[in-house]
Every structure is written in C-alpha cells, then in structure tokens.
Specification:
The chain has 90 residues and is of the alpha/beta class. It has two helices and five strands.
Length: 90
Amino acid sequence: MSLDKVSGDAALYIGGLFSMRRHAALKEANITHVVSALRLPLDPELFVSYKHLVVELDDVEDENILEHFATSNAFIQEGLDSGGGVLVHW
C-alpha cells in the first residue's frame, strides 16, 4: 500500500499498515511519528525508530472516534512541530 501525502504544506501522510514496511518511502518522507488507528496486534519491531501512538479503533459504523481526536491531534501536531513527518495508518 502506498504512502500518500495529505494535501497542504504539512508533512502528513496516510496509508495502510503495510506502509510501515516501505522503509525507503518512510525515510524520504522524514517520518518521525506514527499513529496506528486500528485494534490489531502490532509488531513492535515496526515502530522502534518512531514515536508511536496507538488509537484502538474498530472499523465499524458506530465507533466513537471523536473521543480520540484531542490525543491524536496533539500527537500529530507534536510531530509536525518537531520538523518531522507524521504517518497515520489503519
């Protein structure tokens, strides 16, 4: 799965879980922070080089994602303010 840049000036990217295996693309995008928005067991080895936030969500219509916005937005802003790139994946 690709690593797609969100429109605008911020170094914010979205992608699937397999984006974490695209090491050259992650390095080129200067990814320093990763938000995992899913409820699955994750291989910790994939994230050792990054600051990592797990937002446990199920892909269902009635999932309350709003309760996670303050934490996830602060984490994303921290990554951008530090000069790094941020990947949000599911």
